[in-house]
Amino acid sequence: MAIEVRIPTILRSYTDGAKAVNAKGATLEELIGDLEARHPGLKDRLVDDAGLRRFVNVYLNDEDVRFLGGLGTPVADGDTVTVLPAVAGGAR
C-alpha cells in the first residue's frame, strides 16, 4: 500500500496529467523526496530552502500540515496528501 498524493491541475504536467499519484515515505519530507524521484521537478514547486513554499497548501487527510509539523509530519500507508495552490487576489 502507498500514500495517495492528489495533484492540482497546475502541477499535472509533472505527473503526465495524473490527478493522483502514489508515493512512499515516513514523513512528508521523505514523501516529497519519493515524488521527486518519480516525477522530477515537482519538489521545486512544493518546497524551497525555508520549507514548504508560501503559496502551496498541503493537507494530510484534510489537516493542514503547517499545523501538524510541516515537512516532519509523519505519514502512513493509506493516508491521502492533497496539494493545493493558494489562491489570492480578486477584483476591486
From TrEMBL:
CDD domains xrefs: Ubl_CysO_like
Protein name: Molybdopterin synthase sulfur carrier subunit
Classification via PANTHER family: SULFUR CARRIER PROTEIN CYSO, SULFUR CARRIER PROTEIN SLR0821-RELATED
Gene3D superfamilies in the record: 3.10.20.30
Alphabetized Pfam families for the sequence: ThiS
Residues passing through the membrane, by range: none
Listed SUPFAM superfamilies: MoaD/ThiS
Source superkingdom: Bacteria
